[in-house]
Amino acid sequence: MAAADDTHLLERLLKGEQRAYKELVTTYQSAMRAVAYAIVGQRHADEVVQDAWLSVVRSLARFEGRSSLKTWLLTITANAAKGRYKQNRREVLLDDLPSPHGTIGDERFTPDDGHWAVAPYAWHQDTPEALLTEEELRDCLEHTLLSLSQLQSSVLVLRERQGLELEEICNLLTLSLSNVRVLLHRARLKVFATVEHFEETGEC
Amino acid sequence: MLTCKEQVARSSDYLDAQLTFRERLLVRHHLMFCPNCRRFIRQMRLMQATLRIMPDEPVQDADALAERLAAQRRKGV
């Protein structure tokens, strides 16, 4: 459902108020880009976002507030992406690329009883703010995010950074729930391994 | 009782509330007795929170884009 904020912003958008568009662009463009990137990849993501913005402006008056503004924008983006490029990614769907610091894989557990063979290292910091004060860790995380496959990284961004529900991600990217769960889990374990590595060694 | 390896394999589903009631109980039960896995889940949550607050790359040319879109809207194109 559209929030009160959405309604107010929408009125200003309909009037063509430039500051309202700036607000719209800065708030939602990252999420739109993540959706476009998931469907068409790096090379065409920006074009798709531009296309999506134009159709947003064209259809603003028809926005009825049955979903949130964000969901509406992301749906338009997904449609722009799908309309422009045929999906030919089925065979690489669950592609799992190597990550700079690996993952939490089978080798972390003893083969006989499935206990931790190498227990999770205790991180020094216990708040996200404290973790991010280390500039090197930030770079290191960005490096790991870039190493993820197109879909792993998009699903992770949409879930953790954009706060989308799994079901919304399935609908936008036309993926099954089980695929989204697998993509998300693999991506998280790689990011986990990166933070662990950094906390343990102090370097990237 | 789940093994640690099985607990880790279910951790994302646990965090996203995708487990059935029974599976959820199994994970909780394991966590109750396993400090390593408690640490793992706590740090998974911390990792999630860290990703959430990482600063976004600023949008390139937001002003120019906003200007163009607003103009487009006023033209009623």
UniProtKB/TrEMBL annotation, chain A:
Record GO terms (molecular function): DNA binding; sigma factor activity
Residue ranges of every copy of the RNA polymerase sigma-70 region domain listed in the record: 24-90
Secreted in keyword set: no
RNA polymerase sigma factor 70 region 4 type domain residues: 139-190
A Pfam family: Sigma70_r4_2
Keywords: Sigma factor, Transcription, Transcription regulation
Origin: domain of life: Bacteria
GO biological process: DNA-templated transcription initiation
InterPro entries recorded: RNA_pol_sigma-70-like, RNA_pol_sigma-70_dom, RNA_pol_sigma70_r2, RNA_pol_sigma70_r4_t2, RNA_pol_sigma_r2, RNA_pol_sigma_r3/r4-like, WH-like_DNA-bd_sf
UniProt record similarity statement: Belongs to the sigma-70 factor family. ECF subfamily.
Protein name: RNA polymerase sigma factor
Organism: Pseudomonas fluorescens
UniProtKB/TrEMBL annotation, chain B:
Domain Putative zinc-finger positions: 4-38
InterPro entries found in the cross-reference section: Anti_sigma_zinc_sf, Znf_put
Pfam families the record matches: zf-HC2
Name of the protein described by the UniProt record: Anti-sigma factor
Organism: Pseudomonas fluorescens
